[in-house]
Amino acid sequence: MPSTLARTIGPTQATAMVVGTIVGSSIFVQPSEVSRAVPTFSGMLLV
Fold first, then answer.
1. What's the total number of domains in the chain?
2. Of 25, 29, 33, whose CA–CA distance to 44 is shortest?
3. Which of 2, 7, 15, 27 is buried deepest, with most CB atoms within 10 A?
4. Which of 1-5, 13-17, 38-42 is most confident?
5. Is 13 domain-assigned?
6. Does pTM surpass 0.85?
7. Could you tell me if 34 and 47 are in contact, meaning their C-beta atoms sit under 8 angstroms apart?
8. Does any domain span residue 4?
9. H or E segment at 45?
């Protein structure tokens, strides 16, 4: 039994990494776009 882990990324893991990156970056981009489109803070919270 080898003492090191295999460093392989399959299609499922690669897809999960891409989706995670897209969702993670969207969390930071989305609030600024919503605040530009909605004039009030309470309206932004409702969206």
1. 1
2. 33
3. 15
4. 13-17
5. no
6. no
7. yes
8. no
9. helix 41-46
pLDDT value at position 12?
Answer: 95
The DSSP code sequence of 23-38 is: HHHHHHHHHHHHHHH-
Q: Is residue 28 part of a domain?
A: yes
DSSP-based three-state secondary structure for 13: helix
pLDDT computed for residue 19 by the predictor: 94
Element (H, E) at 11: helix 11-37
Confidence band for 2, pLDDT divided at 50, 70 and 90: low
CA distances from 11 to 6, 23, 35 (A): 15, 18, 37
